[in-house]
Design goal:
alpha/beta; Rossmann fold; ten-stranded mixed β-sheet; 39% helix
């Protein structure tokens, strides 16, 4: 019943008979176990000395984080998630709970959930929606002091859209889900939160208004005053506008003052490495919904549109939610080291004159939640080896490294047990999907021939977008057929995943894959499983031997499935992209290709050839190389390395700790200082910044001199002097810097060092002289450049858009 209900405690209690409950109440063993479970939960909820307790002295008073996301993957019964973004958001909340971090989540309650995937006879994806009865879910309606539903509203043209609030308790962390299905709304507006990513652009815009603007209002109605607002993707970026409105109303701040105060406590995480993944809205569409909001905030319409556009935009350029979030957030980040680099290149036009490496977009690499994904057999092995419980020690490196104390037999048996269970589950699911088209034929014998529980099993499961290249391995179908049908070293593949309902190219890719699985040469060795969800994902990541990932290089932001596989002792076979750029080493898995970004045809050719070579000559031989005891000791060695080396690095515990220490706490301190005494410093900073912007176009270098001998030598001093026209600004308002380092053939620099120049003289008019002493530690072709930028104690960082001037 627990499995059938999708791990839904409410439905289990509804379905189980009172007679069965009475029997359980008389069972001493059951009641003892129940009391242990209850005591463990109570101890968890009351726990002291959490990780946050060790760092909270760094936080300002009232520190609290509000985390906004369009979707949340908590477990499979609460279908308010679609894919990796939602799973990541759900696990952000879980780790925040485990670590004791004061955080609340904000999202939407989708009454139809995410669609079920069914395949037609031709293999075309069909979507089946479902209506969710909230009474059957582990959620609670939030009420006011007199017991009535607590409601908030968002202004839309000519009407208010009203929302009620549902609470989901994720350990210690509350998740608040907004729901427009209330009597006060028209049928049209009630449908706003009906379906995740459903409907047209108008529906998406209204959903994002409810999430962002309604979410901020809901937190206020709940009596919460977050010190940090974290936007998980640009869907929630309208929260910035509601925060501006509240700052204007509450404190009487001007628009510029409100921007500086509220952006100081906004954090934005982008998960998108390509422009096509950004939410964009037509300017006319925006004006219909936001003309009144713009006037209320004091924006003229063109300035309002500039919040969501790059500096050099076209007249009809759409309004970008990512640009809005970047413009009104003090800190932004990508979700892997490589994605941080991609994001800085992608958004460099927002920071003219700023070198790509200094664009203020950092990275926090994603992770996974160990308690959600680690298999029970492997958990037992690790707990026995370490002497600690997973829930208490999963953030500790030593817990994962204790796998070295387990025997090869223990590790291999735990893994084989999960592979066998995976094959059993896949056979059952495939039987169900075949039954719809079976026309009465007996499927039992057919399904039992499907997959081999002891063969090398490779998994590929993810969203069916074309850049993920699900069919790359079939590029040379004859060669693949020979490999998988090798009598001595058979290989099998399990595919799963959904295409977005509006993504026809993705659906076509899926259809092609389904047709390939039906070919006689692949029959029984390659299967596609319908309706990929958290339950199937858990079986896959715990049971596969190898996880295959083949995205086009540079287009995978992070990816987390491979982290879950590694945690369970599986090995990754992946393009060098996303998290695998940080995780890969030869002792934990394999890389496909070199990681270079190539043109599409060459990338496919290189990737496919690399895959075949690795599978045929490295992966399969290592898996089937057995010792006298029948164990693949070389393979098990790599499993140990994957568990010990990758698991502690790629957990959401580590991820949330990084967010807290590097983004939340630092920004909370700055925001607290700006907001003190009626936002006194925010007001002063806004005035200063306005003055700097007013003069900046005239600030320039008058002269630059570099004093160096006929031949510069390593560690020999080089003096750089500059004469600067400040145009009415004070020398205290600017910093003059020398950037020096290795020079590329095109004259640009990389890996440069920044030296602050010192004011040496004030001259007639607004001239000032600066000097710096630098030296180079290595030989080679070197370069330097001199620049001016603003300086103020309340600057969010060294780089502000449009405020950097270089000497020519």
């Amino acid at each position: 019943m627990w499995d059938e209900t999708g791990y839904n405690p409410v439905m289990v209690l509804e379905r189980v008979s009172q007679k069965r409950l009475d029997e359980a109440a008389q069972d001493d063993d059951f009641m003892a176990h129940l009391r242990r479970v209850q005591a463990a939960l109570q101890a968890y909820m009351r726990a002291e000395n959490t990780w946050y307790d060790t760092v909270k002295h760094q936080a300002p008073a009232g520190f609290n984080v509000a985390y906004f996301s369009m979707e949340y993957g908590i477990n499979q019964c609460l279908r308010v998630y679609s894919g990796g973004l939602g799973i990541l958001a759900g696990e952000h909340l879980k780790s925040a709970s485990d670590l004791g971090l004061p955080l609340v989540g904000v999202g939407l309650m989708y009454r139809e959930g995410r669609f079920h995937q069914r395949l037609s006879a031709d293999g075309w994806q069909q979507e089946e929606s479902q209506t969710i009865d909230v009474d059957d879910l582990p959620v609670q309606l939030v009420t006011d002091v007199v017991g009535q539903p607590l409601k908030v509203s968002v202004q839309l043209p000519g009407r208010q859209v009203v929302m009620q609030i549902w609470q989901v308790q994720v350990g210690r962390v509350p998740l608040y889900l907004l729901d427009t299905k209330v009597p006060e709304n028209s049928e049209f507006d009630r449908a706003t939160t009906a379906e995740l990513y459903g409907g047209d652009s108008d529906m998406r815009l209204r959903q994002e208004m409810v999430l962002g603007m309604g979410g901020v209002k809901a937190l206020r109605a709940l009596g919460l005053a977050p010190t940090i607002y974290h936007m998980n993707e640009g869907h929630a970026a309208f929260l910035t506008l509601e925060r501006l409105r509240q700052a204007h109303e509450d404190l009487g701040l001007s628009l510029d003052e409100a921007i500086e105060l509220t952006s100081a406590s906004n954090v934005f995480t982008t998960h998108t490495p390509v422009p096509a993944g950004i939410d964009l809205f037509d300017p006319g569409h925006m004006q219909y919904y936001f003309a009144d909001c713009s006037r209320e905030l004091g924006f003229d319409w063109e300035r309002f549109l500039r919040l969501g556009r790059p500096p050099h935009h076209q007249p009809n350029e759409p309004f970008s939610m990512a640009v809005l979030a970047l413009h009104l957030s003090a800190l932004s980040n990508g979700v892997s080291e490589r994605h941080g680099e991609v994001a800085r290149d992608m958004w460099c036009e927002l920071w003219p004159q700023v070198p790509a490496e200094e664009i203020p977009i950092t990275h926090v690499t994603n992770g996974v939640h160990p308690q959600t994904w680690l298999s029970r057999p492997l958990t037992q092995v690790l707990e026995h080896a370490s002497g600690k419980k997973l829930g208490d020690a999963s953030a500790e490196r030593s817990f994962w490294q204790s796998i070295d104390k387990a025997t090869d037999v223990e590790l291999w048996e735990a893994h084989v047990q999960r592979r066998h269970r995976l094959i059993e589950i896949v056979r059952g699911r495939v039987k169900t999907q075949l039954a719809r088209l079976a026309n009465g034929r007996d499927l039992d014998a057919e399904v039992q021939q499907l997959l081999d529980p002891d063969a090398l099993t490779i998994g590929f499961a993810r969203r069916f977008a074309t850049y993920k290249r699900a069919t790359l391995v079939f590029r040379d179908a004859e060669r693949l057929a020979r490999i998988i049908n090798d009598v001595d070293r058979p290989v099998q593949f399990i595919f799963a995943g959904k295409a977005h309902p509006n993504n026809n190219p993705g659906k076509e890719l899926l259809r092609q894959l389904v047709h390939l699985t039906r070919e006689e040469r692949f029959k029984g060795r390659v299967v596609f499983v319908e309706d990929y969800d958290m339950a199937l994902a858990r079986y896959l990541v715990q049971g596969v031997d190898v996880w295959l990932n083949t995205p086009v290089e540079g287009q995978e932001a992070s990816g987390t499935s491979g982290m879950k596989v590694a945690m369970n002792g599986g090995l990754n076979l992946s393009t060098l992209d996303g998290w695998w750029c940080e995780g890969y080493s030869p002792e934990v898995g394999w890389r496909i290709g070199t990681g270079e970004i190539l043109d599409a045809a060459l990338s496919d050719e290189v990737g496919a050839e690399s895959f075949y070579e690795l599978l045929e000559h490295d992966v399969a031989p290592l898996f089937y190389a057995r010792g006298d005891d029948g164990l693949p000791h070389g393979w098990i060695s790599r499993q140990r390395n994957a568990i010990a080396k990758l698991s502690p690095e790629f957990t959401t515990h580590r991820m949330v700790q990084e967010y807290t220490q590097n983004l939340y706490l630092t920004q909370s301190k700055r925001a607290s200082a700006l907001g003190a005494n009626g936002a006194e410093r925010a007001r002063a900073y806004a005035v200063w910044l306005g003055n700097v912007r007013g003069h900046w176009s005239a600030v320039r270098f008058d002269d630059v001199q570099v004093h160096v001998g006929a031949e510069a030598r390593v560690r020999e001093g080089v003096r750089v002097e500059a004469r600067v026209w400040l145009d009415g600004l004070s020398p205290d308002d600017v910093a003059v810097q020398v950037c020096y380092g290795d020079a590329r053939p095109d004259g640009s620099m990389h890996g440069y060092t920044i030296a602050e120049a010192t004011l040496t003289a004030r001259e007639e008019g607004d001239f000032a002289r600066y000097a710096a002493q630098i030296s180079y530690d290595e030989t080679g072709i070197k370069g330097l450049a001199v620049r001016i930028l603003p300086r103020h104690r309340d600057l969010p960082g060294c780089c502000l858009p449009g405020l950097m001037t270089w000497a020519r």
